[in-house]
Amino acid sequence: MKVLFHYAAGARLREEVARFATLGLEVVCCAEGSEQPFLAELADARVIWHVLQPITADVIRQAPKLELIQKIGVGVNTIDLDAARSRGIAVCNMPGTNSRAVAEMSLLLMLSALRRQYCVERSCRTGKWVVDAQVRESLGELCGRTVGIVGFGEVPRILAPILEAMGARVIYTARSRKEVAYPFVSLRELLQVSDIVTLHVPLTAETEKLIDRSRMALMKRGAILINTARGALIDEIALHVALVSGALGAAGLDVFAHEPAVATNPLLALDNVAVAPHLAWLTNETLGRSIDVAVRNSLAIRDSVALEHRVV
Questions:
Q1: Does residue 90 form part of some domain?
Q2: Most exposed: 69, 134, 211, 279, by fewest CB within 10 Å?
Q3: What is the model's pTM?
Q4: Options 50, 200, 278, 289, the catalytic residue
Q5: 6 catalytic per annotation
Q6: Domain span holding position 76
Q7: Of 164, 259, 296, 309, catalytic
Q8: Active site residue 259
Q9: Residue 242 half-sphere exposure, CB side, CA atoms within 13 Å?
Q10: Domain total of the chain
């Protein structure tokens, strides 16, 4: 059975997935962004292992044999679920496989923003040992700060105790109160009292631009905004204004409203923004766990048995 892995796999990973031929799975790797090779391979694929490049209704129309879209990760906003449903194509995700990696990246972005790591490293690499006074006077510690977590799923459950162990005060908001020891507050209160706000909710019609100009205005002056969830949760134009004006002190962004983010995105030019190219989820350990789930579901679709974490 042919499986199309839509990902720029390196030699080691290609060698690893080739071993699944012994299970009857022909895994073909095709880099994201390679449209024509992807569509050519798609024609006879029964399964797609999908990472980030959108699976649109048009893509689905060009996949006559497709039976399963397996998301490598959690968020399925990059898949046209209605088009899949109308074709009877199953869609599955894999909650929990990348939670630790995302939690660690969220922490890294917080520390990078607090310590202005981009400015400090650039200064050091260019031979400027004494960092500008403005940067030195903006450096801070996590200990003693209030971190507000928006959403409280798998990632926050890992992240919160780490933050607490480092001396931060943790509060959270979510659609409903969770059975955790941290104070549950409204989004409004969280924004008003937090020194750092970190986003951990899915992108839906309700959460698009959740953090817009009006909500940024509620945040403490000099607060830090972290996003490892989905870029469109934030109004990027409003964020740029807030960062330039000093209303917000810094941001840490692994995700952007439009990806891949282009060099002309004004947020990338700011010294008070720590960035990464949507790889919070990506570690060797995450890939190993993810491929295990993807293989099990691919075999399940072949053998007509129940799928894990079915969304559609």
A1: yes
A2: 134
A3: 0.94
A4: 278
A5: no
A6: 2-97+283-303
A7: 259
A8: yes
A9: 27
A10: 2
